[in-house]
Amino acid sequence: MPRERKTRLKAEPLVPAMLEGEVARLRPLCAADCAVSVRWRNDPDIRDNILGYRFPITEEMEAQWVDAVLKDQSRARLVLAIEDKTDGALAGFAYLNGIDWFARHAELGMLIGERSRQGKGLAKEALALVAGYAFETLNLNKLHLRVAAFNARALRLYRDFGFVEEQRQQAFIRGRYHDVVLMGLIRSHA
């Protein structure tokens, strides 16, 4: 007897129209955002704290990045703009990168690039909004992230939210989650 084919439904959009809290609003990235974000990416203090691209960039490079994000249909990346609700100004970005739909995890990244808006609760609320969306709407099991050891403010934020230093349940093999051991070798020890 031939197998019946399941009708494939069109995938729901990955990017939400809007996520809103008391002080922060998360919205889809737009082309106009690069006019502000290029300044953040060229600020060494901001750039060094997010472990991103390590070199200065041009306005054209930033526009190309935003365009690539907007055209990305891979469903493996979500980039949201963080706005300050007091005046609607762009304050930063929240990311889910490398979304693994099978193992149901993604790498989280955030930045509040506008220095005058740091320490005002935007990152804390944006973190809660994006984590809630990841777990409740996208049905992810885990978020993981990388933080430079010197970034005390980010470490405090993530630890207070419940993140722990680990690589638990990073792989999904044969119907079960398994821990992954993160290892490295430094040249001077080889």
How would you explain this protein's 3D organization?
This protein is α+β, with helices and mostly antiparallel strands and 190 residues long. The protein has one domain (19-164): Aminopeptidase, CATH 3.40.630. It has five helices and eight strands, in the order ββαααβββαβαββ. The strands form two sheets. A six-stranded mixed sheet has the order 1-2-3-4-5-6, with helices on both faces. A two-stranded antiparallel sheet has the order 7-8. A hairpin with a 4-residue loop joins strand 3 and strand 4 (89-100). Helix 1 packs across helix 3. The relative contact order is 0.14.
Summarize the structure.
Helices cover 28% and strands 23% of the residues. The protein contains five helices and eight strands. The chain is of the alpha+beta class and 190 residues long.
Strand content: 15-25%
How many domain units?
1
Report the strand count: 8
Q: Which residue ranges are poorly predicted, with pLDDT under 50 across at least 5 consecutive positions?
A: 3-10
Distance between the termini: 60 Å
Q: What is the subunit organization of this protein?
A: single chain
User: How many DSSP H or I helices?
Assistant: 5
Shape: globular
Q: Order of helices and strands, N to C?
A: EEHHHEEEHEHEE
Average predicted confidence as pLDDT: 87
CATH fold descriptor? Aminopeptidase
Radius of gyration: 18 Å
Question: Can you summarize the main beta sheet?
Answer: 6 strands, mixed
Report the CATH C-level class.
Alpha Beta
Q: Tell me roughly what share of residues is in helical segments.
A: 25-40%
Structural class: alpha+beta
Main sheet: which strands, in order across?
1-2-3-4-5-6
CATH homologous superfamily designation = Gcn5-related N-acetyltransferase (GNAT)
What's the architecture in CATH terms? 3-Layer(aba) Sandwich
